[in-house]
Structures are given as structure tokens and as C-alpha cells.
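Retry 2 of 3 after timeout on previous attempt. Resubmitting C-alpha cells to design endpoint.
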């Protein structure tokens, strides 16, 4: 049994396992990495608000996003192999409904909504789709986005692929003991 106390009164927004270590997303925008004994390996400040993880097709955690605090912040997105989090623009659709990472794009769609967005690795909205009817189903194939919205729609999109390149976690957020955890409230540059 392990026990870890958070340095703040933040709640846990998600738990995940990476290479035998625990990822703990806090409700105050900080991501912790703990080893199997509960010792702090690293900490990254992603943004304000609760955090949630984004997975690729192989179910590996590839990014972490902060849920915006109403009136106080925009969501931030941090790819695990990026040097720092990026701020998402105002028109960013539904940070809490990132369906996954497909190639170099993230798919954002709220169930039964009429809008769908593809976000690139810089946080920019690369493709925004608005349908006249609610989108009931979405599927990603090699270079194609297929969706049902009262009709079957198939779009060819460069950079969209169910195949993923492996994302390598950047120091200091790795398990390597040569890196000390950071206490900084600012994003970490690698």
C-alpha cells in the first residue's frame, strides 16, 4: 500500500499507469508522476482546472489537457514529448471531449453535437466541421474521417491516421533518476 499527499487541497481528476509509474492529474492543473512506492518522480504544471488524459489508438497516454476555469483561463494542452504546454485558442471545441490522438491531430467531438474539431500539435484548430444534423458516430481510417450525421460523410484529411508514432516522454518528466522533480508553477521546458 502506498500513500501520497498532495501539496495542495486539489482533488484527483484522473489516474493512469505509464511504464509502471502512476500519473495523477490534479484538479488544480498539476500533473504528478509517482513511482510504484509512491515517491514523487516529477511534476508539471499544465494549466488551471482539472486535468484529463488523451490517448492514441494504442491506448497510450500521449497528451494531457486542462479543463478551463470559467472566466479565468483557457484550456492548455501538453503533449508528453513537447517541451511545454500550449494554450488552446478561444474557438477550441470542448476540451473535455478529446476523443484521441490520430497521427498529428487530436479529434474533439461532444456526443450528439453538430460540431467536430481537429486540433494540431501547436494547439491550433486545423479543421472545424459543422453539420446540419447531430453527429451520431465518428470513425477514423487511414487519412479519412467518416461520420454519420443524418447521412454518411467521408472526408480525406492530411495528417489524420490511426497509426501513431511513439511519443517519448521528455525529461524532466521521465522515470530516469537523474532528473529532479520540479517545484515550479510554470510549465517545464526540456
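Retry 2 succeeded. Sequence:
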Amino acid at each position: 500500500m502506498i500513500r501520497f499527499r498532495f501539496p495542495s487541497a486539489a482533488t484527483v481528476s484522473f489516474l493512469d499507469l505509464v511504464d509502471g509509474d502512476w500519473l495523477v492529474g490534479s484538479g488544480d492543473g498539476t500533473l504528478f508522476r509517482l513511482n510504484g512506492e509512491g515517491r514523487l518522480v516529477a511534476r508539471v504544471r499544465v494549466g488551471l482546472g482539472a486535468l484529463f488524459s488523451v490517448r492514441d489508438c494504442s491506448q497510450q497516454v500521449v497528451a494531457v489537457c486542462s479543463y478551463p476555469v470559467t472566466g479565468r483561463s483557457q484550456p492548455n494542452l501538453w503533449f508528453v514529448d513537447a517541451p511545454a504546454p500550449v494554450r488552446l485558442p478561444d474557438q477550441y471545441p470542448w476540451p473535455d471531449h478529446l476523443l484521441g490522438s490520430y497521427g498529428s491531430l487530436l479529434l474533439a467531438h461532444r456526443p450528439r453535437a453538430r460540431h467536430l474539431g481537429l486540433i494540431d500539435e501547436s494547439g491550433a484548430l486545423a479543421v472545424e466541421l459543422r453539420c446540419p444534423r447531430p453527429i451520431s458516430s465518428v470513425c477514423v481510417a487511414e487519412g479519412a474521417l467518416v461520420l454519420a450525421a443524418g447521412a454518411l460523410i467521408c472526408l480525406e484529411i492530411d495528417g489524420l491516421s490511426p497509426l501513431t508514432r511513439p511519443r517519448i516522454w521528455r525529461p524532466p518528466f521521465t522515470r530516469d533518476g537523474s532528473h529532479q522533480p520540479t517545484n515550479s508553477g510554470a510549465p517545464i521546458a526540456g
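Attempt log closed. Residues 117 and 142 are 18 Å apart (CA to CA).
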